[in-house]
Amino acid sequence: MAGSVQSNTIDFDTARLQIAQPRRRRVQSQTPRSLESIRQQLVSMLQTSLEMERLLAIFFQELQHACPIDALSYQNAPVELRIELGQRGSHSASYRLTHESQYLGELVLRRQQRFEEAELARIETLIGALLFPMRNALMYRDALRSALRDGLTGTGNRVAMDKTLEREVAMAKRHQQPLSALLIDIDHFKNLNDQWGHQSGDEALRSVANAIKSSLRNIDMVFRYGGEEFLVLLTNTSRQDALMIAERIRQNIDSLQFRVNSQNIPLSVSLGCASLHSDENGSDLIQRADQALYQAKRNGRNQVSLAV
Length: 308
Ligand SMILES: Nc1nc2c(ncn2[C@@H]2O[C@H](COP(=O)(O)OP(=O)(O)OP(=O)(O)O)[C@@H](O)[C@H]2O)c(=O)[nH]1
What we know:
- This protein is an alpha+beta fold.
- Helix content is 48%, strand content 24%.
- It is built from 10 helices and 12 strands.
- α1 (12-20) packs across α5 (117-148).
- The protein is elongated.
- The N and C termini lie far apart (62 Å).
- Guanosine-5'-triphosphate (GTP) is lined by residues 152, 185-190, 193, 198, 201-202, 205, 227-228, 297, 301.
- It comes from Atopomonas hussainii.
- InterPro entries: Diguanylate_Cyclase, GGDEF_dom, Nucleotide_cyclase, Rev_trsase/Diguanyl_cyclase.
- It is found in: Cell inner membrane.
- Its cofactor is Mg(2+).
């Protein structure tokens, strides 16, 4: 049987009205009491978290009492958020969620059977309860991300780095998986600043950060370690593989076309590469990567050095 798509837009202010007047006629003729009690239960459960993943899991679970669905997917491309719950179904109901001019994302509910009109009305009432917590979760996520991000390059900042390093070292030890670190430092960056100005230096930092990010898998993590230094954490990556990745980053930056006033400015980086030993902690790992980086600089720059 062919699937169907039913699309709707849910606006925050409309939803607010809906919450203020929950006994809408079209819903009342169905099962007003039970729907209202499901909604109240949902509202109180949604107050327990500011995490979008958790909110949608609660919504998915509570929605089943009002209208069985097989899958829920949420996507908010501008904030790079995508959450999938359950199995896919051939029929779907889509909702574009907004608050005034703020876009809150797209919600798609799927199941094997077609959605009835009365079911859509129940779903819409419950989505109304989801919008306030969803807006708060997006604000919380945004605040959290800015607190952990370097404003200039969009990479993780030192706070994020310290937290992640500790977590990844613990995970690597628990699962007995390799963990590698790359310390990357731009060569002769002071000259670039002195010759072309601080703003061009900032541009170069952004270009290098982007080149590092695009040389990696999504799960690898990039942090701004200092002024013109970056740290990359490579989960489940052996020493040999880390060396290969380091070399790829070096080449990608070496071949960057970085221009100031239509003049080509050569950019290169030196890299120190280290893999976690079983008896060391995160700062030991970084220290060995730093020593290797120092060696790469001493050996003439624009190269990778592997820690012992
Ligand atoms: N434009 C810009 N420059 C920065 C920033 N943070 C640090 N720097 C500069 O980065 C330069 C680092 O210089 P050095 O540590 O001497 O290193 P280098 O010139 O890259 O030399 P080597 O690392 O030995 O190749 C300094 O001039 C800092 O002022 C920043 O956010 N923006």
